[in-house]
From TrEMBL:
InterPro entries: FecR, FecR_C, Ferrdict_sens_TM. The keyword Transmembrane applies. The lineage of its organism: Bacteria, Pseudomonadati, Bacteroidota, Flavobacteriia, Flavobacteriales. Keywords: Membrane, Transmembrane, Transmembrane helix. This is FecR domain-containing protein. Residues 240-308 form the Protein FecR C-terminal domain. Residues 100-196 form the FecR protein domain. It comes from the Bacteria. It comes from Flagellimonas yonaguniensis. The chain crosses the membrane at residues 68-86. It holds the Pfam family FecR_C.
Length: 312
């Protein structure tokens, strides 16, 4: 692709197939998009100038008036026309399609973004991202939990917006984000590389190193950093659930998203309990049986309705 291709696009001399190829190339090259807009403006200016003279080649009354009233205004008009008089195909250069992908309860899904970044979505998760990244920032929006392996690009940082009070910015690294609206906390766990975590309310920023987790506590509006075993927090990609003194509220939330069950708590004291254990690709009844063996928690199950209560 080169300047000749852009000129041919501006002048409408490309076949539909070739036009699609050039537009796709422009979408990936913001600097070339700027060149396209300049050439488009010059082309429109040229066409208007040629129309100053009628078919006889003699200036019309309108042309004389146009010359003395508005060449300066014409320059402004030309750049406006570059954006407003484009064909639907050419408008693709300025409009980037946004894609939304969602997983259901019990479903994991892996996708590759246009820059090569790989994202694995946990159950009940929604991610929104542009079909092609343009500009100086690669930004996606996340609701739920996802594991990111970001392609390194020092000129274009990668940003994850959670909508839950936390943003994560990286250049190229591997990390996990857990940001379910119903959870009390938003967590970012760094596996490798470096990430900058931004608490949006107070604009507090922390930089994580590998094996660190940043937790934003929604109710308390504070950011906490601690050291963790990253495999415990990312094992969900392999169907495992690993807990180490984890609040039972979080365990229950994970089970509800992984299995299509409704869990209620009969004994209030259960919510103060912290669970330690590992579930390696087990069914929900096997997990509940392990609860009874490894903790003071008992259960009753009726179809997909589970009730937890404490041993007396």
């Amino acid at each position: 692709m080169n300047n000749k291709d852009i000129i041919a696009l501006v002048e409408g001399r490309l076949s539909d197939e070739r036009k699609a190829e050039v537009v796709k190339w422009l979408l990936k090259n913001p600097k070339q998009q700027q060149r396209y807009h300049v050439l488009k403006a010059l082309h429109v200016a040229k066409m208007l100038k040629e129309n100053e003279h009628g078919n006889s080649g003699r200036p019309t009354t309108f042309a004389k008036w146009y010359k003395y009233v508005g060449y300066a205004a014409c320059v402004v008009l030309m750049f406006a026309l570059a954006y407003t008089l484009t064909s639907p195909e050419e408008q693709l250069v300025e409009e980037t399609t946004n894609i939304t992908m969602t997983t259901s309860i019990g479903e994991n899904k892996t996708l590759t973004l246009s820059d090569g970044t790989q994202v694995t979505l946990n159950a009940n998760t929604t991610i929104s991202y542009p079909e092609t990244f343009s500009g100086d920032l690669r930004e996606v929006s996340l609701r739920g939990e996802a594991f990111f392996d970001v392609t390194h690009n020092p000129r274009k940082p990668f940003m994850v917006a959670t909508g839950n009070g936390m943003k994560i910015q990286v250049l190229g690294t591997v990390f996990n984000v857990k940001s379910y609206p119903e959870d009390l906390n938003v967590e970012t766990t760094l596996v490798s590389g470096k990430v900058k975590v931004i608490e949006e309310h107070h604009k507090k920023t922390v930089v994580l190193t590998p094996s660190q987790r940043a937790t934003y506590v929604k109710d308390a509006d504070k950011l906490i950093v601690d050291n963790v075993e990253t495999k415990n927090l990312t094992s969900w990609r392999e169907g495992k659930l690993i807990y180490d003194e984890t609040p039972i509220r979080q365990v229950i939330g994970d089970l509800k998203r992984k299995y299509k069950v409704d869990i209620s708590v009969e004994s209030p004291g259960i919510m103060d309990y912290k669970y330690t254990g590992e579930f390696d690709n087990l069914g929900i009844e096997q997990i509940l049986d392990l609860f009874e063996v490894s903790s003071p928690i008992l259960y009753k199950m009726n179809n997909n309705q589970i009730t937890l209560y404490m041993k007396k």
